[in-house]
Design goal:
The chain is built from two helices and eleven strands, in the order αβββββββββββα. It is of the alpha+beta class and about 230 residues long. It has one domain. The strands form three sheets. The chain has a five-stranded mixed sheet, with helices on one face. Strands 5-3-8-9 form a four-stranded antiparallel sheet, with no helix packed on it. A hairpin with a 7-residue loop joins strand 1 and strand 2. The chain is globular. About 40% of the residues are buried.
Length: about 230
């Protein structure tokens, strides 16, 4: 796990360096600098099974963004709440419940992850979720280069979303009944402890190809959909 977290920090620092360079060179009409976009989070591990189901070609999202079907959660869900300034503490395993669902007519190629704040205080999901499939905890999914425009701070019963590209049509896949997930905490030097999460009854298992990837956490589900179906 420590090797994986170092990999995430290297990525985050690289992105910050690029942002700093752009900020120092790009000026607005009045000579001021233009501020840039977001950040978000990682960590996890699961168990594998070994069957694959046929993969139909994925739909063309450019004509119509498919709507995700049901989201499951271990606590009562509610409408999104509080877009915070990022001053709320980082969300941890005990702060959120995780639901999973497919997009309708997507042939299971993409997965929607919904994090619901189950506490009575706001918390922040930084960067992108640290997700792994199978036993290889040192190889988390790479981000889709899609930082959100705002840090995903969620109030009590509020939600944030992340999307996972699982496989491409015709690609060889492996099947998994769970996945590992952990969260970034910029204020801590400790590696987060990943937890194993079973998929919802609707999903049951996923097929994962050779190069899966994940979006950054986002309060706006439509933005997650835009990145997911754009990343081909």
């Amino acid at each position: 796990m420590r090797a994986a977290r170092r990999s995430w920090k290297t990525y985050a620092l690289g992105a910050a360096a690029v942002a700093a360079l752009l900020s120092s060179t790009a000026c607005g009409p009045d000579g001021g600098t233009e501020d840039g976009a977001a950040s978000q989070a990682p960590s996890g591990t699961p168990t594998a099974s070994a069957t694959t189901r046929p993969a139909d070609p994925s739909p063309s999202p450019s004509t119509e963004a498919p709507q995700p079907s049901a989201t499951t959660s271990t606590s009562p869900s509610a409408s999104p709440s509080a877009t915070g300034s990022g001053k709320a503490p980082a969300c941890g395993d005990k702060d959120v419940s995780i639901g999973t669902s497919y997009w309708a007519h997507d042939s299971g190629q993409h997965l929607l992850i919904t994090a619901t704040n189950v506490t009575d205080k706001p918390c922040t999901l930084y960067n992108y979720p640290f997700i792994t499939f199978g036993q290889d905890a040192d190889s988390p999914l790479t981000p889709m280069e899609s930082p959100a425009k705002a840090i995903a701070t969620i109030g009590p019963k509020g939600k944030a979303y992340a999307g996972v590209k699982l496989f491409l049509g015709g690609e060889k896949t492996d099947a998994y009944k769970s996945f590992g997930i952990a969260y970034a905490d910029p204020s801590s030097t400790e590696d987060g402890s990943p937890i194993d999460v079973a998929f919802s009854d609707e999903v049951q298992f996923v097929n994962v190809g050779r190069n899966p990837s994940v979006t950054f956490w986002n309060l706006d589900r439509s933005e997650v959909e835009r990145f997911v179906f754009k990343a081909r």
